[in-house]
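[Q] Does anyone have a clean structure-token version of this?
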Amino acid sequence: MAQYSSTELSYHHTKDTPKSDSFHRHMHNGYELFYFVRGDAEYIIEGSAYRLRPGDLLFIHPRKFHYLNPVSDATYERFVIHFSIDYVPEELRDFVRGSNEIYRITKGSLAERFFATWSEVENLFSKEDLSEYLRTSLSSAILFIKYLPDESSVKPIRRDATLESILQYIDSHPDEQLSAESLSAKFYMSSSWIVHTFKKNLGISLMQYIQKKRVLYAEALIYGGTTPTEAAKLCNYESYSTFYRQYKKILGVSPMDTHKHCADA
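[A] Here you go.
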């Protein structure tokens, strides 16, 4: 496995035998490029499920809940790049923000050759040189994706329109104290249906999902210069102590740790 990690950019190239309970169901504030080399799996992004084929490229946006669902024990190989929008040239940021969730990369295309080259150079370059190669070539990879043909986009194999609407509402209202009851009243669906559908389709409880969304929104505010105390207020937490506990539980660091990291950067 080849890997590199920094605050604004990280990557890894991994091969292993998948187990359904070993893949972290998660979301984060950065962008993620996920290139599927081989395996037998589905990938879940929010309320949509995609059946992966070798060469598929997922472009996962910030605060989107996602995870791999192995279909068999076939060897699973992937390249994963995490990056901040600040790492992307200004002229490419609109494309990144509006990109599709998944693209089907054709053999021999520039995008496919980018990852093929990466596979070659990781066995040749030192770890430091490999990270520099990725840093300087990320913009090229995004450009290659930008100019893929329209038919390269992929439709989900499963999608629940009502669940999608609920997810979008939660994502756009991180300052509200949402619950199954409040969402039931908003979308005219029973609270039991909402709770059951979340657990079935996302493998996470409704309240866990809402808490993760709020904490990630707070993290983004703090990275943008908001103080932890003000971020707690903007996210409508009942008390700072509640905010502190949830933040540290979900992110593994305290709000002040994030604030201090920003100040030191």
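[Q] Thanks! Anything notable?
[A] The CA atoms of residues 19 and 159 lie 24 Å apart.
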